[in-house]
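## Example pair
The file below holds two records. Each record gives the amino-acid sequence first, followed by its structure token line.
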Amino acid sequence: MFNIRNIRQIGVAALVTLVATSAFAHPSLVESTPKDNSEGPAPAKIELRFSENLTKQFSGANLIMAEMPGMGAMKMAAKIGGTDDPKVMVLTPNQPLTPGKYNVEWRAVSTDTHPITGKITFTVK
């Protein structure tokens, strides 16, 4: 039978589980524009949406031209910024992207200060 002590212990256990789960949460990439492995026209900007608010000073990304006929991989100049949404990172290429395959290698840090890295790939036709 449940008594006050048992109910209190269940409540404390639930609270500890909830706090521990949120303390170990890391940001993950939820969505990107353009989408990973997509093909299409050159985007004017690249948006990365994460599951948690980003710590902007520790988060960032690089735009890499991965494949273009006659050329090797090359880092492209791009401005990194945000929006009013702290879960979104935006890369704006300094020059229009030419046809080829591109990688966006990102690093996201949220309030837990643990960096998570990843990559999306897209092709400009």
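Second record, same layout:
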Amino acid sequence: MPMTQLEDTLPQWDFTERHSRWIDAQPGQVWEALTTLRLEDLTLTRPLVAVRHLGSSGTKMSSSLFQDGPVTMLRTDPPCYAVGGAIAKPWQPRPDRRVPASLSDFASFTEPGWVKYLTDFRLIATGHGTRLVTVTRGVCTDAAARRRFKWYWAAIRPASGLVRKDILWTTARWARAGA
């Protein structure tokens, strides 16, 4: 199986999570549902996401996840793949962020004290449906950032996984409704 852009850009990482869901809809329907999803559309985790982004100037709950989400979409290959990235200090109450302009810009960033992370979405046709897979990987730019992020990740990892599962669930619901 060929490497994804996420795997190619971040072959080594400090943290990762993966979630997937089979959806009873064709890839085009799943892609449409995924790319129009807004953070405010999340069912279970909307309050968690809203609290996390209080006071944040970058993420808008009412905008498409692919337009104004917590990661900047750096490559989309409709209807089968998208990868977005962020460079941040998420342990801060109002996280400092750098917006990468491209995957190469993301890969070349090495300033100490930051976490670089990518999230991708892969849609795989499976006969009568689509498997939607999302992977998040991140790497800290130095040991100090790794120490800070270690505590942050321990605290938010369960909620992070829940948000991703909610994204998959909401996408599935919308894709089936549009079928």
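Notes on the second record: Helices lie at 5-9, 27-36, 46-52, 65-68, 103-108, 143-178. The first strand starts at residue 15 and ends at 23.
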